[in-house]
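REQUEST FORM: STRUCTURE PREDICTION
Request ID: SP-0412
Submitted by: Lab K.M.
Chain count: 1
Length (residues): 76
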Amino acid sequence: MRSAGFPCRLAGCERAFQVTDQTSMDALKAASAARTVHEVQDHDYHHVRLSDERPAAPYFRSKAKPDTGAAKGSSR
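STATUS: Completed
RESULT:
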């Protein structure tokens, strides 16, 4: 059974790669890199990002903020 962490993306593989320090971005990157190494070496799997995947970004706006014309120097 898979546990928390980054699971191997190959169906049927039960490996998961733990983030050792939940407050560390370096630990997050290390777990992701370890998963990638496992997938390539053990399964010859090379993940390809789908064209419709958006990069993870906090506070991502799906719509542009409407222009109210209230900005300084607006000549409407």
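NOTES: Helices lie at 25-43.
Reviewed by: T.R.
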